[in-house]
Amino acid sequence: MSAIKKLVKPSHLINMDDIIREGNPTLRAVAQDVTFPLSDEEIILGEKMLQFLKNSQDPVTAEKMGLRGGVGLAAPQLDISKRIIAVLVPNPEDKDGNPPEEAYSLQEVMYNPRVVAHSVQDAALADGEGCLSVDRVVEGYVVRHARVTVEYFDKNGEKHRVKLKGYNSIVVQHEIDHTNGIMFYDHIDPKNPFAVKEGMLIID
Known about the structure:
By secondary structure, this protein is an alpha+beta fold. It contains four helices and eight strands, in the order H-H-H-E-E-E-E-E-E-E-H-E.
């Protein structure tokens, strides 16, 4: 049974066993564009990827299913070499601990996403990045574009163009990298992992 056939079975919820780890050649391959109209499998896969992220962010479900928390997932991480990513970035509580008005600052399944423009300014997360396909801590600043314009298609084949900055920009760049065979630590300076270039934004 192919990876996608197993994942889209109605009874199956994506879990950590479905996620391939570094060393698997699919993570270094350049993924194929999807064609429209999408197959039912491709639509269901996108929905299941988003559901995995929701499950991983729910403390009870995550513990029950043994999930690591995630804000993004790309099809190549499921051993499916297609340009499909899901992103789910929660909004933080306010300073008094009240839930945000909007639960998510970014909630989307993107087909054939591409960065079509980006800022000159670089940015990196203060705490570095992690990856569901990497079972180790890799320290250092993962240098990315501070702002990006991304074009993608939704499941209905409609084209979207979004401008992203800050954490959302970093998350989407990380996932698009997966569709290009790039791992987050490829962006870390091996000689000086915490080098800060002039003008680089460090995001807490």
